[in-house]
Design brief:
The complex is a heterodimer of chains A (299) and B (416). Chain A has ten helices and 14 strands. Chain A is an alpha/beta fold. The longest helix of chain B is centred in the middle third of the chain and has 20 residues, at 255-274.
Chain lengths: 299, 416
Amino acid sequence: MMIQTIATAQSIAQAEALILAGADRLVVGEATYGLRQRGGWSLDEVREVTALAHHYGKEVTVAVNNLMHNDQIASLPDYLSALKTMGVDSVTAGDPGAISLIRKANIPYWYDAQTLVTSARQIQFWAKREAIGAVVARELTLIELKQIQRQLGLPIEVHVYGPTCIHHSKRPLVTNYFNELGRNESGEMREYYISEPNDETSRYPIYEDANGTHVFSEDLTLMAQLPELFRNELHTWKLDGWHAGERFVEIVALFSQARSHLLNAKFDRIEMERRLAELQPEPFRLGTGLLLRNPEEIK
Amino acid sequence: MRKRPELLAPAGNLEKLKMAIRYGADAVYIGGQQFGLRSRAGNFSYEEMQEGIAFAHAHAAKVYVAANMVTHEGDIEGAGTFFTTLRDIGIDAVIVSDPAMIEVCLSEAPGLPVHLSTQASATNYETLRFWKEEGLERIVLAREVSMEEIREMKRHVDVEIETFVHGAMCISYSGRCTLSNHMALRDANRGGCAQSCRWKYGFFEADELLTPAMEARDEEPFSMSSVDLSMVRHIPDLVEAGVDSLKVEGRMKSIHYVATVCNVYRQVIDAYCDNPDTFVFDPAWEEEIWKAAQRELATGFYYGIPTEKEQLFGQRRAIPQYAFAARVIAYDEASKTATLEQRNHFRCGEEVEFFGPGFTRFTQRIEDMWDVEGNRIETAHQAMMTVRIVVDHPVDVDFIMRKRKVMAKEAVPLKT
């Protein structure tokens, strides 16, 4: 099986650069139906990026993974029908109501209920309901990822680079905080960070948008574990460019190179880790989150 | 007359189950020894469940079991047996969020009704329709759903809707927060939540990223701590929206909390449903609710997106706290003597309150007190000791005697 590299894209220009850097599939979307899509992709832009990706023989996935409220679900069929018409390759979705509508629209979907996707049996539930793959919880350990993939006939997406969302509130928590401080300003759509009480050097991105507030983990990476993923049929690699900025294209290129080195049996872990560390934007730490923990450690 | 919604109360143990029902709950939800989300709440063995079911059914009440863990590999082992056992001993429904668990329950324990847990964040009518068609009987909505959205859901789908009306809330969409996993190695979706949202965090703007720390920054730390929910003043709206079950949070809360909250909501629901046209909210109901409150109270997302006023920051108003002092275990009408089982220290000369099912309540000064041998005593200092006092008004078995605690600031959970 081929290794597929997936990257989030924020603009048409970046999308093309990501494809040239080796991304096989781009994830785009906007805030009504998708979660944490920086690009705020309009339907016209989705049409353009889909044509572009298809020109290069690559794919586009649109994030439809929001928790839909009534008004969003009411307008979703029109959105889906537009996506279908422009030939989008797949969508991600975790809301069962949205999934029903996606199946009616006959668009392939990746099951993506974020933190809740934690077992093969759960993914099989959705596979029986036409899911083509699953975006699994980033709280799973590598041991669990291997156990899950072994039981499935469809791919699970492994997060190999970038931050992941670890808290989604519908409340405007940054704006509320500013109001509490008497700072008369909105906290929406701007870059802020929080640090953990007992770890002053930690920097967790916190972002407020129309869907509320999102707290992200620190940057996760499985660069060093790519050979292990490769050996264990974990062949769908996701890179999230949340705050990697300009560097993100170079980081995607590095993972593409790592992939080809793996296929040619000349992967040099130390070298690849060193180069990734060089590209990692300051002051964000690069870690492995819960990925290398023993599942027993997490109570 | 209106159709009465069910009043659904938490029951952390058998005693709380009985008291919740005595104080007006139509149904209770409990945890089993597996598959729950409250590893620290008292959880029921099958034998205790059977006793609880017998008591509940004798009082025309129902018992639900929360099995809302989001399972990882291996966790689901034994779930089929668990569900069939629950069905066979007479549990009225299970509350589940994980589709894998739902599938096991529906396929291996047919006949056991399944309710979708709030943990699955059901927020729209298509999701309700999906789960109804899969065979679920009831949906517990996400706490982010507004009153208007509930009305809209009821117009689209005919399935039972349960909503939270009282208690503590996640500030995130339930299930969509893993702060605790990442910061404390405790899985929020498997019963380990460390309440990391309520911690105090440093806050940085993009150009301050290299700023060393919080120290010396003379400002309020960032926090994501929600006040508690109370819909006590809005029961008519919930009834008119067609909500089928009104849920009170708090399987870890005290008997005093469960009894007080059930007692009040029972009154409000009955008062409105019996006479919707002449219903007037009695301020005494709200006054009573505050006696079981640990934080400020608000209406969550029912009427809008919560602002900073619905979050806890810095200096907090101290809310008078009441303790469960004793439970009445016998009453002699001739001598007006109540026999009490002690739960918290009290003494002669103290002013206490008695309350019982049906919203009976009165203030009492403890004049004289006797132990079981009839010796006059000054203090009831020993846990579970039996004492007698004379009361000014009649009481009954299971009345609760509460006393006001010394004012204390609300506890902020510390990082563990």
